[in-house]
Structures are given as structure tokens and as C-alpha cells.
TrEMBL record:
Protein name in UniProt: Nucleoside diphosphate kinase
Subunit details: Homotetramer.
Residue ranges occupied by any Nucleoside diphosphate kinase-like domain in the UniProt entry: 1-138
GO terms, molecular function: ATP binding; metal ion binding; nucleoside diphosphate kinase activity
Enzyme class label: transferase
HAMAP family, sorted: NDP_kinase
Species this chain originates from: Waterburya agarophytonicola KI4
Length: 148
């Protein structure tokens, strides 16, 4: 089953949106298989966002991610990588669709509340970066076979 890495950024935690965000993923039908609150080291933030290291916003982004605690999570489900990106909305909350997390709660591109892996391969890399294997719980919700 597909998995993705989701992080509630410092602004999401500070604005007490943790429960709201987790609720949206649960209601969609996805399964939480890993979760921890953590203060991110500079090294981890720089590695996580290394694809952006030449961009002008890189230092500010790393400063922000390391400024206060985040919630790191792994969610599992069918097509969860792309579906999570839809739940999250476009990068800039100003243009993110209402109904998405960024569209409903965000105002600034640099304070867009949440991160989600952008592809299946990226998700695998990010899960391995943020979690060790025994922090992830392999469980299946009890379901009727016809019910997702
Ligand atoms: P994320 O990686 O955090 O889930 O966000 P994303 O895929 O939607 O956007 P990405 O292009 O990967 O950018 C990473 C984060 O960098 C910040 N950013 N600031 N000032 C700017 O122009 C700018 N552009 C990007 C955003 O916080 C974005 O989430
Ligand atoms: Mg990204």
C-alpha cells in the first residue's frame, strides 16, 4: 500500500491546526502509520529541502522549519501521495482552492502550514529520512471488503 510523508509545519502547530489537519486525512479514508512531534535540526531541514538549496527562499525556509516544533507523519492508502497533495492544495495559499488545507487556512507562501511529498519516489526518500522503521506501525483498519 502506498505511503506518503506529511509534516505539519511550525505555523500549523502554533495555530492549533494539528487536530483539524489529522481529521481531514482520517475522514478522507487514509490510515496513520507514524506520528511524532519534533524540533527539527538544521541538518534535517536542509536535507529535506535540499532540492531548493539554490533558491533565494532556502535560508528563510530552513530558518522557519527549525524555529518551532513540527508534527511528522506517515499516511497510508490508495494513491495517497497525489491525494494528499490535493487535500493540501497549491503551494501558494492565496491561489489554493477553498476546501484544501492551504486554501482554507493559509495566507502566505512562506507560511503554508503543511508539507506533503510530491511523488511516490520522493515519499519513500522522505519517510526514510524522517522515520526509522520501528517507528512505523503496520496495521490495517477493520473494514468490510466493499468499503474503502
Ligand atoms: P512543500 O515541499 O513544503 O510541501 O511545498 P510545495 O511542494 O507545495 O512547494 P515547493 O515548491 O516544494 O516549495 C517548498 C516550500 O518553500 C516555500 N516557498 N517559498 N517565497 C517563495 O517564493 C517560496 N516558494 C516556495 C514554501 O513554503 C513551500 O512550501
Ligand atoms: Mg515540495
Amino acid at each position: 500500500m502506498e505511503r506518503t510523508f506529511i509534516m505539519i509545519k511550525p505555523d500549523g502547530v502554533q495555530r492549533h491546526l494539528t487536530g483539524e489537519i489529522i481529521h481531514r486525512f482520517e475522514r478522507k479514508g487514509f490510515t496513520l502509520v507514524g506520528l511524532k512531534m519534533m524540533q527539527v535540526s538544521r541538518e534535517l531541514a536542509e536535507t529535506h529541502y535540499s532540492v531548493h538549496q539554490e533558491r533565494p527562499f532556502f535560508k528563510g525556509l530552513v530558518d522557519f522549519i527549525t524555529s518551532a516544533p513540527v508534527i511528522a507523519m506517515v499516511w497510508e492508502g490508495e494513491n495517497v501521495v497525489s491525494a494528499a497533495r490535493n487535500l493540501i492544495g497549491q503551494t501558494n495559499p492565496t491561489t489554493a482552492d477553498p476546501g484544501s488545507i492551504r486554501g482554507d487556512f493559509g495566507v502566505s507562501i512562506g507560511r503554508n502550514l503543511i508539507h506533503g511529498s510530491d511523488a511516490i519516489e520522493t515519499a519513500q526518500t522522505e519517510i526514510a529520512l524522517w522515520f526509522v522503521e520501528d517507528e512505523l506501525v503496520d496495521w490495517k483498519p477493520v473494514r468490510q471488503s466493499w468499503l474503502y
